[in-house]
């Protein structure tokens, strides 16, 4: 008896194939999707265009993810390859420019790590700390949104270098993680501090050398009040501002002059040429148990929207991942 | 007949001598005093102390000036030496630490230049442009308070390097100077621009690579809107904010991230070890006619307070100097 595929099965089979005539393309089966704060900015129309293309209403959202190649007409990729990079928030995605994908070199580690500690956020932490902040052993380092995907790693990189590290987070549970799991020297729950500047003065009686900026707004003002001479601010993101119609003004920016502060924004994709060096170092740290990592896993593609929105309320504890499929 | 000195004459003679027992000191006769925006901050009480000591009510104000040594117990200084450095706003000043004074190497140039183009403001322009802003030939450079002591030189250094240079100033007279005397490519009167961001877009259709920041506030916001990728902001001062009880907030500081902007504050005194190199270069430019310079001279010590206050209203055209004595 001949087995006849249903229309649905045929349609699905079609999704898994590179369309005929499409050279140098791959089809990805998406496994893990990454929820990242920068995605909020893609929901706003930018004119002139931003470094990241705006989302197009009606089209599939794109973002970083971990995927498996299920079809390929590109010589560098074969069926079964595991990759991370920009993919769609869907089950199968056709990629016509697969050179933007990184092959996964360490599939023995949890694959979801390539949405975080070994992916874009981990590399962001590495670049923003080691390349932008010019850190030195013994310096005082403050990290906001410290329990997030990037912050938890910045703190651990700073501890490995021999810095004194304090983090701010939005719940007592996260503060516990910072102090007891990630090895921060101190941490505080910013929601419970009536005066952020005083909280920082308490944690840094001698001031802050390096601020890894993830939140902006009132926290940035409080930090400027507490920076030391020749301090550096590595500006990675300002999540507190992304959902405001009118951003908060920073009223004490003048302090960068008497304090000789260098404040520098960066975008991790500018640095992707150095990714493999970071990957080698960080995999080694993970295998030696010198770095640990916490993820917040949402199960199923249908959970993706609420998982993404949750970032902006600080609901996630650790890196927010969405599992589409475990293999 | 014996000439008997009056009490007044005796008191004045006393002022011109290093007190007995005071080793390694000099007495200066002050010739030219410099009015500089940073002095405003010394009128505010700082706790912890700022890089510059606060003025002490009842004591003589100090600032940069050009002076002649009229008595000395220091081996490096002899009567008749011309110097520039920190002195008092008075006729004669006792300096017990003369190593903070620079000897004047080029007395053939107008001595008042050592309050400006060859003194602290000129060196500020040099350091802030060449050492902080990392300029490259062909870049787009914007300067606020561009007709002031620092701004006029930044623009000329930038033109000598081959940059496209635009300045903002607060009167049509100053705008004329920028375009026709200092050789700026373009300039505008910010008081006549209803929308600073649009004015900058008009002058820089491709955006700004380097902003030499002298004013802060609304101008800084407008600049951030118009900066190019990998732009640099050399933060020298924010004069628009110094007399405000509540400084204006900068609402678009987040732009430093997508635009990868580096913003850096500096204080010229950190760089004084390199002063002689700057002096050599700039004297050469002056003698070759490659750099020009405009001063606003107030005659007499009694004019000093109003000259200083005038800075904050933009009354001065060019470097504000007070003449105490011409020799």
From TrEMBL, chains A, B:
Species this chain originates from: Rhynchospora breviuscula
Lipid biosynthesis is among the record's keywords: no
Superkingdom of this protein's organism: Eukaryota
Name the record gives this protein: Enoyl reductase (ER) domain-containing protein
Keywords: Oxidoreductase
Enoyl reductase (ER) domain mapped to chain residues: 26-322
Pfam families per record: ADH_N_2, ADH_zinc_N
GO MF assignments: 2-alkenal reductase [NAD(P)H] activity
Subunit structure, interactors included: Homodimer.
Keyword flag Repeat: no
């Amino acid at each position: 008896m001949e087995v006849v595929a249903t229309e649905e099965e045929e349609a699905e089979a079609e999704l898994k194939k590179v369309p005929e005539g499409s050279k140098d393309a791959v089809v990805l089966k998406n496994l893990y999707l990454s929820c990242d704060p920068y995605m909020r900015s893609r929901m706003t129309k930018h004119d002139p265009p931003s470094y990241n293309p705006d989302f197009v209403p009606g089209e599939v959202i794109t973002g970083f993810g971990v995927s498996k190649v299920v079809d390929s007409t590109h010589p560098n990729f074969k069926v079964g390859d595991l990759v991370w990079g920009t993919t769609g928030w869907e089950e199968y995605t056709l990629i016509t420019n697969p050179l933007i994908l990184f092959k996964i070199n360490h599939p023995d580690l949890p694959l979801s790590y390539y949405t975080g500690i070994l992916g874009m956020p981990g590399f962001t932490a590495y670049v923003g700390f080691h390349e932008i902040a010019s850190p030195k052993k013994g310096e005082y380092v403050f990290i906001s949104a410290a329990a997030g995907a990037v912050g938890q790693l910045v703190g651990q990189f700073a501890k490995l270098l021999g810095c004194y590290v304090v983090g701010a987070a939005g719940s007592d549970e996260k503060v516990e993680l910072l102090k007891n799991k990630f090895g921060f020297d101190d941490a505080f729950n910013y929601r419970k501090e009536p005066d952020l500047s005083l909280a920082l003065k308490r944690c840094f009686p001698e001031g802050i050398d390096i601020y890894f900026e993830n939140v902006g707004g009132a926290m940035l003002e409080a930090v400027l009040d507490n920076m030391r001479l020749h301090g550096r601010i590595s500006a990675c993101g300002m999540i507190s501002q992304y959902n405001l119609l009118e951003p908060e003004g920073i009223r004490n920016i003048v302090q960068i002059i008497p304090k000789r502060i260098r404040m520098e924004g960066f975008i991790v994709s500018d640095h992707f040429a150095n990714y493999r060096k970071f990957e080698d170092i960080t995999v080694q740290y993970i295998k030696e148990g010198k770095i640990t990592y916490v993820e917040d896993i949402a199960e199923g593609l249908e959970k993706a929207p609420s998982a993404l929105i949750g970032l902006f309320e600080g609901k996630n504890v650790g890196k927010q991942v969405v599992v589409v499929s475990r293999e």
